[in-house]
Every structure is written in C-alpha cells, then in structure tokens.
C-alpha cells in the first residue's frame, strides 16, 4: 500500500502541485464499521457534490475534470477500498482521504488512523487542513532494531511504518576500514564503531524526519547496548525498548513498537486529563461538558479542545454567523434560525482548528466520562459581565 505515511513535505508538495487553473477534488470518508456502509455513504456524498458542482460557474472543461474525479473516487471506494480496509492488519485504516485532479492526471490516496469529517470539496487547491491537524496531533517515532552487526531503521507514524533506512544515505561499514593502529582488538573496535555509527544515524534520521521519540529493538542478550552509545540528548527521547532482531519482519517490528507507542500515548492522555481535572476542581482555565465547551469555543477561549474518541452528539449551527450550540432554535448572536447538526462535535473540532487551538482525542473512554465526554483547557477566563471588547 502506498502513501500510508503522511508527511508535511508530502502535503507541501500536494499544495504546490496546483496552479490555479485546474480544479482538484478532496474527498474524506470514514471506514469505521459503526458508521454503516461506507460505499453507500460515499455515493451519497458524491451525488450531493455533483449537484453542487452544477450550480457553480466553472467552465465546462473544469466541470468535466471534477466529474471524472468523482467517477474515479467512486470506483476506488467501491472496488478497492473494502479490500484495503479488510486486509489492513496490522495497519489500521479508519478513514481515507483522496485527492484527484483528472485534468492533470493526478490521483492520490491517504489512509487515515482516525476518521475525519466526511466531505467532498472541489477547489483550485487541495483541502488538506484536516490532514495537517492529524500530523500535529500524532508523534513520529524512529524505531531502530540493532544487534552487534546490523541495524535497521523504521519510521512509525499514525499506526503505520516505513523503512526509514532507505530515506537516508547510509554506509554503516565505511568507517570500519581503517581502525587506528593503537587499537589491537579490532573486533571490539568494529562493534563499538558500528554502535557509534548507528547512534549517529539515529541522530541524523531523527532530525531529517522530524521524529519526536525513539524506540529501540534489541536481542535480549544485547539489551541496553545501544543506550550506552547514545548522547544524553537522544537518551532523553527513548520511549521504550522491545526484544527484536534486525532480521525480523516489518510486521513483527510494527506490532511490538506499537505496544510501546500505545503506552506512551496512554501516559500522555492521563497527563492531559489530570491537568484538566486539576483545573476543573480549582475552577480555573477549564470547562467541561458540551454546553460550556461550545460556549468557551464561541468566545475564543479554547487553548486545547479535549474530546473522547468517537463521541458524537447532535446540536445546532447558525448558517449565518457560524454559532454552535446544543439546542438553541434562534442564534443568540445574530438572531437567525439555527440548523440541526447530526454531529456537533465535528463542528466544534473544525472551529477549534480554525481558531488555532489544538485538539486532543482521548482514546480511553472512562477518562472523560465524568466530565461529559468533551472539555477544554482555556487560554483565559471569561471576563466580568461589564467588561468591554
Ligand atoms: Zn448566528
């Protein structure tokens, strides 16, 4: 499968690819089973987009290109996606983002570790903001599997893994050719040089690929060996280690490395929720529950929106000014009639991104149960009623 690993670089190239003349279709779909038949939903999304397209004043040629995009996307979702989703283990596919520009012969698929809001957008540039958010939220890991002779590097991100060694020009043995003559024990020297080389490569790859954390795989008898060669700065970034040998399959490595990733993520989640609950109990710089969270969002107070993974609830949105609420029939901001929205959480997330707030999903369901499944850390408290501006 291609294009599993989304990088900023890829998104930058995607954006630069477009020239203001040709339209590109951006398509987002959830493949989570609980949401029903995704092929059917995709068809509905596209039918609706087709109507929207007819109402635009794009040229016939431009429309033709977008219609061809729709056909290609439909076909992919119907014929290929179910197979990709089914065969995805040990990878996780919970959603898909597709970019297509038929006029330029461009078609690209990204598999997502989390469903993003479903939509079809056609425009002169790709709609990539949701992907940018994903990139920001997930940590990028360098996984190194090393023994005294070999080392393999993998990059792990959003539940998928690539062979990172291919991404850099490495020649691990280059420096073994001429050990200084004062070193008689060539064998030991070669091993030490190998580990030093690996440590340098780790440093290089981590900075080249913007990796946040390091995971080490080693055979049991060599446990802790690499650690001794890592500079303090890199030791600080070690998220964990597991037992492995450089000849293990990529699937085995991914499975074991993901366990460490899960532990790291759970710890971060706990930390975030602890901070939230501390602040809530002090009634300072935090709100919880849908109503208060939406209210804080509408007042631009939110620094971090915290949402239980999979939490969905209906609400209302003002079509005129964008106000989000729980059940207000009339918009309290502009007086327009509000629209019923099936999942207001989606809108809240969009709004938070729009405002430059960060969004954190909490996977462990029990953590946010007692605070109403949604909450926020605030930048500032609402000022008194008489405050101006
Ligand atoms: Zn309004």
Shape: globular
Low-confidence stretches: 385-389
Number of domains: 3
The CATH topology of the largest domain:
Translation, Eukaryotic Peptide Chain Release Factor Subunit 1, Chain A
Mean pLDDT: 86
Description of the structure:
With 389 residues, this protein is an alpha+beta fold. The chain folds into three domains: 8-136, Translation, Eukaryotic Peptide Chain Release Factor Subunit 1, Chain A, CATH 3.30.960; 138-265, eRF1 domain 2 (Nucleotidyltransferase, domain 5, 2-Layer Sandwich), CATH 3.30.420.60; 285-378, Ribosomal protein L30/S12 (60s Ribosomal Protein L30, Chain: A). 36% of the residues lie in helices and 22% in strands. The protein has helices spanning 8-16, 38-54, 60-86, 129-137, 186-208, 232-235, 250-281, 290-298, 344-354; strands at residues 24-30, 95-101, 106-112, 119-123, 140-146, 151-157, 160-163, 213-218, 238-243, 286-288, 302-308, 315-317, 324-325, 339-341, 358-362, 374-378. The strands form four sheets. Strands 7-6-5-8-9 form a five-stranded mixed sheet, sandwiched between helices. A four-stranded antiparallel sheet has the order 3-2-1-4, covered by helices on one side. Helix 2 (38-54) runs antiparallel to helix 3. The longest helix has 32 residues, at 250-281. The protein is globular. Zinc ion binds at residues 318, 320-321, 323, 331, 333-334, 336.
